[in-house]
Structure formats: C-alpha cells, structure tokens
Amino acid sequence: MAFENYTIKDIAKALNLSTSTVSRALRDSYEISAETKKLVLAYAEKINYRANPIARSLKERKSYSIGIIVSEIANNFFSQVIDGIESVAYAKNYQVVISQTHESSERERLNVEHLYSRSTDGLLMALSAETIDSSYLEELMKKGFPIVFFDRVPGQIKSHKVIADNRQGGFEAVQYLAKKGRRKIAHLTGAKKLSITAERLEGYKMALLANGLDFSPALVKYCEYGGLHQAEIEKAVAELAEEDYDAIFISGDKLTTGYLQAMKDRPEADVNSILIAGFTNSKVVNIFSPTITAIRQPAFEMGKKAAELLIQQIESKYAVDEFETIVLPTTLIERE
Are 267 and 199 within one domain? Predict the structure, then answer.
C-alpha cells in the first residue's frame, strides 16, 4: 500500500488555517496559541504527516542534521551519551551523523572537515587521545559553526562544555579504597593530554592526601590510547606488578575491562587480593570478576544536555558569545 504524501497545504486546507500558521504550529512557535498547536498536531498525527526535510532545509538554509564525534561507539559510555543526544535531536526533528576517531587526531580532523563540508548545522564532540592542536576547531567556531564539547574538552576554547565531576569521582573511588584499609593504591589512566586524565588524577591525589597516604609517581601508569590497544595495558600491568600495590583506581571503561583481562593472563597474579574501583558505565559490571566498585557517569544526561545546548545555539537568532560549562555528578556503586 502506498503512503500518501501530505503537505502543510493539505493540513491548512483541512483545518481552515493559513499555511504559515500550520508551519509555525508544527515548529512549536511561541506566536501560535496552545489550542491551535494542539489542533494542528493532532491532525498531523492522524494523517501521519512527515515534514519534507529537503524542502525545509532549502527554505531555511539548514540541513537539520548534527554531527557527533567520539573515539569509539562500542565504548559503553559513548554509546549511552549518543542515546541521550538522539533523544533530544529526534524530538527536535534533527538527524544525527556519527563518526569515530579511534583516538586518532588525523581522523578526528578529517571527520570534522567532512561534517562541516556536508553542511551539518553543528557538532558534538569528545576530543581524541592524540589531539594536541585544536585551533582549527576554534577557527570554525569563529566562522559561526557551533561546536559543543563533552567529556574530553579543550581548556583553551570558549564554547559550551558538558562534563562529569571527574575530580569528585576520582576522590570518592580512592576514598573508598582507603577506607577499606588499602595503603598502596595504584592508578591506571589514559592520555596525559586529556582533560579527564588530569581531573581524575587530581581527585586521586586529593584522596591520598586526605587519608595520609603518600603519592608515588611509580604507581601511576598512563595508557596513551586509553586501553584501545590491549598491549599498552599489559605493559602497565607488568610494571605495576613490581610495585606490590594492594588496590587500584582505574579511570576509564576500556581500561577497566582491559585491566581485568591482563590480570587473568598473568597466572602468577593474585587477582582477588587487589581491590578495584574504576570509572565504568558497563551495564554488566555486576558480573565482573573480581568485583569492581564502579564510578558511573551520567552519560545519557550528559548527551541530552550537550544536544540541548547545541540546538539552542543553532537556532539562536543572535551570535552566542556566552558559554556554559555544565558539571554533572558521578555515582559510586559499591560491589562487595
């Protein structure tokens, strides 16, 4: 059965309204009364009306699409952020285009340039582990191209940013380990240049100080690709084995699962003697062995807020020069 292609003119004729009134009602314009909006939306739903995105974009000079750039879609955290973004974007009639960097700054730049050249209306992005120079992003923003950063954010660029409270999350993780009587707490983390690495390391140090524990650089191991390559985790685990640590704070999803795998591959390691707390948004963290006390980020909420800020900026009639940094709390989920 063929679908009938209804237009705004059809709705206007059926309801005895002007096409401009129907158009504004469908866009939830403040100029239209709540009663008229209700009437138009009810009829549009009844006839299964769908806006023509090509005609709309030509008329308004907008593509009604936004780009998302993350390191890896398979990462639990990023997949949940994307769910949050989509929940807002689709409600506002925007489509999303998702790209992965696999922690490559070159691929990140190619993705940005591609999405910009394809006339997406704006970008939501978390920086790659390799990214040092983000000046090209600043140049795009100066041209009026909206970019909202989340999770891994550039410190020097003025823009909307949505992050978790990484310092507090790191502090609570190490505080938990210290309260369990652990005195030599290691830290497995990502690339030094990332904002989340610095913030979680700061939380780690704060908790050591609060519990009268010394900070030892030998107990901190960096994985420049955040666990994307298992070999870098195995190297860090082998080096930590020389330090006789009794607990570990891990700062990322991939690092957490990678650490467990690396420990299982070391038959001489007493895995169960080391208490683990780490950032992970895995939905099956309760079946990890050994158990992990999880620091969970509000990933879905982070995606929603980032999308709201981006769409507000896209639809603003004036240039936006005041920006927010939204900090969302983390949650510690204890596992015995």
Answer: yes
Distance (Å) of CA 76 to CA 81, 104, 234, 286, 299:
9, 19, 21, 14, 9
Specify if 55 maps to a domain.
no
Round to whole Å and give the CA distance between 218 and 256: 19
Amino acid letter, 44: A
Q: Are residues 228 and 256 in the same domain?
A: yes
CB-based burial label for 137 (10 Å; 0-12, 13-18, 19+): buried
One domain, residues 176 and 288: yes
- Whether residues 176 and 281 share a domain: the answer is yes
Q: In the chain, what is the straight-line distance between the N-terminal and C-terminal CA atoms, in Å?
A: 58
What CA–CA distance (Å, rounded) separates 295 from 255?
A: 13
* Whole-prediction pTM: 0.82
Q: Tens digits of per-residue pLDDT, 42-92?
A: 998 888 877 665 455 445 557 799 999 999 999 999 999 999 999 999 999
Rounded distance, CA 104 to CA 45, Å?
44
Percent of the chain whose pLDDT exceeds 70: 95
* Structural domain includes residue 156: yes
The number of domains in the chain is 3
Q: What is the rounded CA–CA span in Å between residue 24 and residue 32?
A: 7
Q: pLDDT tier at 29 (50, 70, 90 boundaries)?
A: confident
In the predicted structure, residue 335 carries a pLDDT above the cut 60: yes
Q: What is the pLDDT of residues 167-186, one digit of tens each?
A: 999 999 999 999 999 999 99
d(CA 86, CA 70): 14
Closest of 265, 279, 266, 121 to residue 204, by C-alpha = 279
Residue 244 sits in the same domain as residue 306: no
Is residue 253 in a domain? yes
Q: Rounded to an integer, what distance in angstroms lies between the CA atom of residue 37 and that of residue 9?
A: 16
> What domain range includes position 92?
62-164+299-330
Assigned domain for 335 exists: no
285 and 251 in a common domain: yes
DSSP state of 2: P
